[in-house]
């Protein structure tokens, strides 16, 4: 999956940057590794673009806005692998604890981007 390759590439770049900062990697070696990684990622991205079936949105912008405004009602329409990142993007922190009666209790702190999204749509 492309996302996994991007994450691997980002980790590699971070490790190289740390090695450069620690003096374990020369600037020339770092530049060479970055150039090679860039070429590798371009080839991988091109491969995924060739084989990827692009999703064509058939919904009008207003329909999408209505769906987002009524997210609770449309939650079953959101793919399960999208639900968790969507909720995580809305909150800075989600804490699950047991309440005094032993049942689950959630405390959520809205993220700054969530407020920005809400403000920009209303």
Task: Explain this structure.
- The chain has 122 residues and is α+β, with helices and mostly antiparallel strands.
- The protein is 65% helix and 12% strand.
- The protein is built from six helices and two strands.
- It has a two-stranded antiparallel sheet.
- A hairpin with a 5-residue loop joins strand 1 and strand 2 (104-110).
- It is flat and about 60 Å long.
- It starts with a helix and ends with a helix.
- The model is unreliable at 113-122 (pLDDT under 50).
Q: What's the structural blueprint in terms of helices and strands?
A:
Layout: H1 2-21, H2 27-51, H3 61-69, H4 71-74, H5 80-90, E1 91-98, E2 104-110, H6 112-121
List keywords for this structure.
122 residues, alpha+beta, disordered C terminus, flat, two-stranded antiparallel ribbon
Quaternary status of these chains? single chain
Q: How many individual β-strands?
A: 2
Largest sheet: 2 strands, antiparallel
Helix and strand pattern: HHHHHEEH
The dominant shape is flat
Strand arrangement in the largest pleated sheet: 1-2
Q: Tell me the β content.
A: 5-15%
Give the N-to-C terminal Cα separation.
36 Å
The computed structural class is alpha+beta
Note the total helix count: 6
Helix fraction, binned, reads 55-70%
Radius of gyration: 21 Å
Average pLDDT, all residues: 75
Unreliable stretches (pLDDT < 50, length at least 5) are 113-122
Write a concise synopsis of the structure shown.
The protein contains 6 helices and 2 strands. It has helices at residues 2-21, 27-51, 61-69, 71-74, 80-90, 112-121, and strands spanning 91-98, 104-110.
């Amino acid at each position: 999956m492309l996302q996994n390759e991007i994450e691997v590439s980002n980790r590699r770049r971070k490790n190289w940057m740390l090695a450069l900062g620690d003096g374990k990697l020369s600037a020339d070696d770092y530049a060479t590794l970055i150039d090679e990684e860039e070429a590798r990622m371009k080839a991988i991205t091109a491969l995924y673009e060739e084989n990827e079936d692009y999703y064509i949105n058939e919904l009008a912008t207003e329909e999408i806005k209505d769906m987002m405004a009524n997210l609770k009602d449309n939650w079953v329409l959101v793919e399960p692998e999208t639900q968790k990142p969507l909720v995580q993007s809305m909150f800075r922190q989600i804490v699950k604890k047991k309440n005094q009666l032993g049942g689950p209790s959630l405390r959520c702190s809205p993220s700054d981007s969530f407020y920005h999204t809400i403000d920009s749509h209303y």
